[in-house]
Amino acid sequence: MTKDNPPILILHLSPRANGSSGLLMASFLKGAQAAGAQARVLAVAGKSIEGCRACGDCYRTGQCVIDDDMEPFYQALEAAARIVLVTPVYFYGIPALGKAMIDRAQVFWSRIYKLGQKREFAAEPRGLVLAVGATKGKDLFTPIHLSMKYFFDSVGFPRKFPFVGFRRIEEPSDWAADQLAQVEGYGQEFVRGQLDLTLL
Ligand SMILES: Cc1cc2nc3c(=O)[nH]c(=O)nc-3n(C[C@H](O)[C@H](O)[C@H](O)COP(=O)(O)O)c2cc1C
After folding, report:
1. Is residue 3 part of a domain?
2. 5 vs 52, 85, 163, CA distance in Å?
3. What band does 1 get if pLDDT is binned at 50, 70 and 90?
4. Is 194 part of a structural domain of the chain?
5. 156: confidence class by pLDDT, cuts 50, 70, 90
6. How many domains does the chain have?
7. Is the CB of 87 under 6 A from ligand 1?
8. Could you list the residue range(s) of the whole structural domain that residue 125 is in?
9. Quick one: which of 29, 30, 40, 34 has its CA closest to 6?
10. Is the beta carbon of 140 within 6 A of some atom in ligand 1?
11. Is the CB–ligand 1 distance for residue 92 below 6 Å?
């Protein structure tokens, strides 16, 4: 992988591996791979990830005291210069298991904001969020957009990132073929550094 084309870390935040957001994730992955990216998917489904205990240990050590399935996420997040988060909307937010993973990124926040450690990246860091919900409310994706903004900030990524939300998708069968083709296109554009849109 070159500096312009670093591996992509795709984080899938639904507890349902093969649901609507799973299909969204798979379509993005297909497009990214077609554009020559190496991508790794880490899904929270089936994992045991405890929420942050706010014990404050990471404020001093930069490490989390909890020993659970978060470890591969930590390792991948330490190395990633491209992060794509794929999530459904649950109660206008990120599903609990996915949110637990996000909260545990407090370790990275501590390293930057408590311990003064500057992050070094193999390439300029770039993020993206893809979200899906069953309803069509105007503010459906606003809470997730804000959570992700501060997640990206915690891991040293820019607070500005493309975000695409899809409404009225309750089940995988609700996706239209042209929507999934569009997502594949986003995968290609993201790899080429051409994706710059916010559809909240
Ligand atoms: C616990 C739960 C809460 C949900 N809350 C919302 C919601 O607040 N707004 C909405 O539009 N859809 C909501 N949905 C619907 C999901 O966003 C939708 O079905 C989505 O396609 C599921 O993606 P998944 O199969 O990848 O988990 C909820 C679904 C579940 C299971």
Report:
1. no
2. 33, 18, 20
3. low
4. yes
5. very high
6. 1
7. no
8. 8-199
9. 40
10. yes
11. yes
